[in-house]
Write a structure and sequence with these properties.
Length: 319
């Protein structure tokens, strides 16, 4: 626990039940409910958080009761919470509780830079390819037009104070927020690796009827959620694609980007266990590959049965 931890930023419980060995909070794989898990002798037990209050006489209005409510909300952003952990930033100030690499920030800023410069020439475009962005940003003509774009945009928006400095500061702020979208885009690309792996499996096991039918079922189950996630990225790109609107409605757009960041993060979070398995296994006939296929089948059947209705979890564009 951090030396300066306090109850406004950390899960610091009073009740002794939260000191049980192995105490932690997770989402149940079978019901998706938030549960508390702990060791009970040699057995791991779990209690649904909604029932903890009654079981251990925890008043929902008490600080422990409020923290349990925060745990349920926090499990949307992290896979596990233990007593003493930091409360996810999303619940405190709206920032992200996870980190991105510098390259994600550089990609986001490059994208905004290209949008500014192409807007200046009357043909604004949104480019997501890191290689293409780097090439355009390093072009001498792009660099020479950046300051000009700052000036023209500042005049267009009639900003107070030092207008050009305000534009530059807003670009930095937007790049910081969009860096999380870029990190999620990179993570989301792993969905294609799973999809390609299933295609390979279909070829490898084409003569084994039972396994082949399971693979076809996996391909069917995986297509709607994968398409849904791709559509969400398309939506973000479309609604953050006009640089003048992005800079003029700065606060609204920051809120929108954070909402979509959280939406994408929550959607991709359950896939992490599958991503890790596919990264470690070779796509070739054998027990390791079959074990990953079995786990993937269970994951898809549990989370993405065809009974579920898929729709784009869209966010309205900032007004």
């Amino acid at each position: 626990m951090e030396p300066n931890a306090n109850r406004s930023t950390h899960f610091l419980f009073d009740h002794k039940v939260f000191t049980l060995e192995g105490c932690r909070f997770v989402l149940s794989k079978s019901t998706e409910e938030a549960v508390m898990r702990f060791k009970l002798g040699k057995v791991e037990a779990e209690v649904v958080i909604d029932k903890l209050g009654n079981e251990f006489k925890i008043d929902p209005r008490s600080f422990d009761g409020q923290l349990l409510d925060m745990v349920v909300k926090g499990l949307k952003y992290v896979r596990e919470i233990r007593p003493g952990d930091t409360i996810p930033n999303e619940l405190i100030d709206g920032t992200a509780s996870w980190r991105v690499d510098d390259r994600h920030y550089n990609i986001a800023k490059a994208r905004l830079t290209v949008q500014m410069v192409t807007w200046l020439t009357g043909g604004e475009s949104v480019i997501s390819s890191p290689a293409e962005l780097e090439q355009l940003v390093e072009d001498p003509s792009t660099k020479s037009r950046v300051r000009e774009a700052f000036k023209v945009i500042a005049n267009k928006l009639a900003l107070a104070g030092d207008p050009e400095e305000v534009v530059e500061t807003r670009i930095e702020g937007l790049a910081k927020e969009l860096s999380y979208i870029e990190a999620l885009r990179e993570r989301g690309a792993k969905l294609r690796d799973v999809r390609n792996g299933l295609d390979v499996a279909h070829r490898v096991y084409k003569n084994e009827r039972n396994l082949r039918e399971e693979i076809i079922r996996m391909q069917t189950l995986s297509l709607p959620p994968m398409t849904d996630i791709e559509n969400r990225f398309t939506q973000v790109d479309a609604q953050t694609g006009e640089i003048l609107s992005m800079l003029g409605k700065y606060d609204q757009n920051i809120r929108y980007i954070r909402e979509m960041r959280d939406d994408l993060h929550q959607t991709l979070l359950p896939w992490e266990e599958i991503f890790e398995d596919w990264e470690m296994v070779a796509s070739e006939k054998g027990a390791p590959f079959e074990a990953v296929l079995k786990k993937t089948y269970q994951f898809l059947a549990r989370n993405f049965s065809q009974a579920k209705q898929w729709r784009l979890a869209s966010r309205p564009a900032p007004k």
